[in-house]
Amino acid sequence: MGIKSKPEYRELEFDGNATRHVLLAEGPGGDALLRVLDQAARHGRDADAACGPLDVLYLPSAEADLSARLRSHASGVDTVVAPDRRGLESALRRVLTQAVMGTRLYVAGSEAFVWACVNVARETGVDDDEVQRERCGTLARPVQCVHCKAVDPAVTTNVYVCPGCGLHVFVRDHFSRRLGVYQSVCVDAEAPGEVPAIEEVYP
Predict the structure, then answer these.
(1) Which intervals hold domain Dimethylamine monooxygenase subunit DmmA-like C-terminal (predicted)?
(2) CATH at residue 130
(3) CB-side neighbour CA atoms (13 Å) of 20
């Protein structure tokens, strides 16, 4: 039986019953948006019809920059290519101020990116059930140290040195949806210096 708090992800799928569609992606997650745009087209949504109720927000990354393909694929659709995470989140807030009942969000990217977008959506009153989530690219986890509350947005190993307090901490499967992070705890509290082998488990 899996850890109940650990989030589940699935491929994004166009919801033909929604009244507005907000597509967000980071780096390689752009491929997921291209797939949703193709599905939208198969639902009979041409560029003119999609212009109002469909928005594309994209953040290029070191892993992938699919901005040119998205702009070409989403011709006639409002497309924003953000310079950084803050810029994308600001654009998302602007879009969601115009949201109506039935708006759907489609988010694809790293786990840290997905939950940053989910939290912005929550702030504007969007329910989690209205957000589809697909993890793409790196499996690195956003992790919070339970001892000092410092957050590392991209941990790839089972044990890491906390950037806040310097402790060796173990990455648990317990996930806080409110904070959008996994929790980590000190590995050598009872036997200082006895640190297990560090392995890359979230490449």
Answers:
(1) 143-185
(2) 3.40.50.80
(3) 16
